[in-house]
Amino acid sequence: MSGPYRPGPPPGGRPVPGPPAAARPGPPVAARPAPAPTEVEDVRHPAVDAVVQAMANAEALSPADQIAQYEAAYETLRETLAGIDQA
């Protein structure tokens, strides 16, 4: 073998491509219609809105801090859904 080790497929091997986008089941994400504004306003929940905003803000955090943010978001959503189920 000449040269340093390089990870990846062996020389001459080609990766097997997946199915083309047209063959994948379901519509592409962009093709799904957005809900009407009145539908979204009717189902808002303050705790969920706060989690969504916190998740958007987590993008600027370090990876370790992102993990803590995701865990806090999970716990908040779990508690919120449990409370809704009990209502």
3D architecture notes:
It contains three helices and no strands. The chain has 87 residues and is an all-alpha fold. It has a domain at 42-87. Helix 2 packs antiparallel against helix 3 (63-86). The longest helix is centred in the C-terminal third of the chain and has 24 residues, at 63-86. The mean pLDDT is 74.
List the topology elements.
Layout (H helix, E strand, L loop, with lengths): L36 H6 L3 H13 L4 H24 L1
Helix pairs in contact: 2-3
In a few lines, what is going on in this structure?
The chain has 87 residues and is an all-alpha fold. The protein has helices at residues 37-42, 46-58, 63-86.
Give the tags:
single chain; 87 residues; mainly alpha; elongated
Total E-strand runs: 0
Share of β-strand residues = under 5%
Distance between the termini: 68 Å
Mean pLDDT figure: 74
Largest sheet: none
**Which runs of at least 5 residues are low in confidence (pLDDT < 50)?**
none
* Gyration radius from CA atoms, angstroms: 22 Å
Shape: elongated
Count of separate DSSP helical elements: 3
